[in-house]
Amino acid sequence: MSETKSKHADYTADRDLYSGLIRLHVLHHAVKEPIFGLGMIEELARHGYRVSPGSLYPLLHGLEKKGYLRSSKQRNGKSLRTVYRATPLGRKALMAANSKVRELFRELIEGE
Fold first, then answer.
1. d(CA 37, CA 35)
2. Is 1's pLDDT higher than 80?
3. CA-wise closest residue to 86 among 6, 28, 8, 17
4. pTM for the predicted model, two decimal places
5. Which of 1, 30, 33, 92 is the most buried (most CB within 10 A)?
6. Closest to 56 (Cα-Cα) out of 13, 15, 104
């Protein structure tokens, strides 16, 4: 098996471990600026996550249903794009997750 296929197989097998990180990553970007599906798929790919539209859009809808994101429609040339922004609840949740991620990082990386 090639190294690329092996990495993909590893990611696919461990996908459930990464789902929370992907949600936090999405929320982080939605706090900074408005986001849209394809842009987030590309951003996540830059960080090694392979997320299909069939996985990302339900994730975005789930974050919106929980009140972390709010969507609106924006015209992009001839097409209409759904854009997501973090809500105050989403900002608060990200701040709370920040301390948990730092704690986990210390344990994983620094061996504390």
1. 7
2. no
3. 28
4. 0.79
5. 30
6. 15
Helix (H, G, I), strand (E, B) or coil at 86: strand
pLDDT surpassing 60 at residue 47: yes
Neighbour tally for 44: CB within 10 Å:
19
pLDDT at position 6: 47
- Helix or strand or coil: residue 85? strand
CA dihedral 54, 58, 60, 63 (to 10 degrees): -160
Label each residue of 21-44 as H, E or C: HHHHHHHHHHHHCCECHHHHHHHH
Mean pLDDT of the chain: 86
How far is Cα 8 from Cα 18, in angstroms, rounded to an integer? 13
> What is the arithmetic mean of pLDDT over 22-50?
95
Contact in structure between 96 and 27 (CB atoms under 8 Å): no
Tokens of residue 8, six digits: 């993909």
